[in-house]
Amino acid sequence: MEQKHVGIRDVAKAAGVSVTTVSHVLNETPYARTSADTRRKVKEAAKALGYGPNRMAQSLRTKRSGMIGLLSEEIATTPHAGRIILGAQETARRHDLTLVIINSERDASDSTHRADVDALVDRQVDGILYATMYHREISLPANLSGTPAVLIDAVDRAGLVASVVPDEVGGARTAVQALLDAGHRRIGFLNNSDDVPATRGRLQGYREVLDATGVQFDESLVLSAVSEPAEGYAAALRILSADNPPTALFCYNDRMAMGAYRAAAELGLTIPRDLSIVGFDNQQIIAENLHPGLTTVALPHYEMGAWAVETLVELIQGHEEHALPTHYPTVLPCPLVTRESIAAPRG
Amino acid sequence: MEQKHVGIRDVAKAAGVSVTTVSHVLNETPYARTSADTRRKVKEAAKALGYGPNRMAQSLRTKRSGMIGLLSEEIATTPHAGRIILGAQETARRHDLTLVIINSERDASDSTHRADVDALVDRQVDGILYATMYHREISLPANLSGTPAVLIDAVDRAGLVASVVPDEVGGARTAVQALLDAGHRRIGFLNNSDDVPATRGRLQGYREVLDATGVQFDESLVLSAVSEPAEGYAAALRILSADNPPTALFCYNDRMAMGAYRAAAELGLTIPRDLSIVGFDNQQIIAENLHPGLTTVALPHYEMGAWAVETLVELIQGHEEHALPTHYPTVLPCPLVTRESIAAPRG
User: Fold this and answer.
1) H or E segment and range at residue A222
2) Does A56 touch chain B (CB under 8 A)?
3) Regarding the domain delimited by A67-165+301-332, which CATH topology (the fold level of the hierarchy) does it fall under?
4) Which of A33, B173, B254, B297 has the fewest C-beta atoms lying within 10 Å of its C-beta?
5) Could you say which DSSP state residue A143 is in?
6) pLDDT attached to residue A137
7) Which chain B positions have a beta carbon within 8 Å of A262's beta carbon?
8) In contact, B174 and B282? CB cutoff 8 Å
């Protein structure tokens, strides 16, 4: 491993700058006066030479460990965890930080959450990301204070910690607008029955965009159910068998839409000719492989993970002004992903 | 946090043992002469008192960091990563180890893989898990030697590193046996077209179990395709439209089975009355939500993650004799998960 013998002096020489400048750039010293051009030159020289300072030594020098922790719940059972982790991890890598992941069950006790935070603090992580796997309001473990922290897909009830969440209202507006644009006016909504921010936000978006288009809200067109395929199937069967059924369905998520596809098939309705459907989540294995492909709205999981790490780095470096205000979560957009499940209503 | 004031003496007193014994037990000193009963007493006392030694201090004392690294590929795009990580992580937690995860793309360059290993070695991890997200033969980065390491879902071409893989042959035997037990004798196999261990192993299992039952192998019943729903659909349509079609299909994975369901529906075949199907993977969102539910074979992802950590701990503690031989991978079983897609053939 000849790379081991490359030193900071070699990098300074190659970049044509002082050793101090290399140190400032590679350690990302807060407020060091180096131009973007100099930083680029130093980083390119360090990369070309394969210069990576020993982290443990760096940690003793700067009192930083070069690690950030991700506390997440339900990593194994949610389709969303992967993209949050990927966004966080690729961003961390760009900042030369290593991501330490600790997973807990959704229903883990408060003491488990406190123990997880302690484990990360004991390992001297520079900061902590706290991710829930669906959009929720939470109370944070008390021992999280004192360490820079950012919430992903969650809002701190106490309003003290920066957080990033999906634009549930805007995403629902986008989804329903796509149905309105195709000419639909009788649009059913299969909503989730859990009282969570996504349920409330998506209903609000549905109502807002109908209002804006001058379509009267009809509460008989909104059904609530468990947000899984079997329950989506039952709800779709009910609403589509009623008198004066809707010509289009907005489904709370792609899993409920999967159930709606089955209900449509059993009722002899061809999608999108007889019934248009739009989902939410862009859960790939479902949305791509339903037949026809499901038009849906994407949750910005990768983007939330990336945003959270960028914000955490600002906090760690003491640039709090970029990370504030913390009382309001940062809201990232949910864009439409167009496939083949929307067409004009018949007749 | 009054727990911070609890010391090793308090634990020794509560457990009725010496401070040295507590140290041996909590640091898992190799070959220390402590009985299982003593270890249990010490651990219970430490847990009850909330005694967790500061890891950085422990690291300086024992030259262990209390961290193990997981290098994995494609964490975000595979449905399998989650359960490997969960198995590894829950097992690591039981050993009071923190799991550090570094993700790379499947097609990352050799230098990226070397850099990932360097990042973990720089952080002084005690050992490294190297996980691929489908069963493969790989060449390991050279800089991995010198650190205890275990492969998950992969086999080291050089045969130097312990590894754990699924029993592809046995899993296929189990799947096809379920169709034979229901009375089928004309069983199609939609195989993957990639030349990977699972393709070869599942074909071998299919042939073995037909042989064992005295059913003649018919190569016209085996089709190869890309292992995704669209290609599974096309292959199923072809084999089911042929003269003398099979009464049952064994699909390489649940995604291909998803395509076979669609082909059956278009041909007016009701599953399982007119056609039985068995999959492979137990990819939950598909297998549970196809209608009827898909009988399939589970890949032991959680178990492989757990096995790998147990083996890594043995290696770290110097009990290599428990982790050898490394030339042959450890093979874990793939059990049948019975749902509703198999019935007796008609007529």
Assistant:
1) strand A222-225
2) yes
3) Rossmann fold (3.40.50)
4) A33
5) G
6) 83
7) 291
8) no
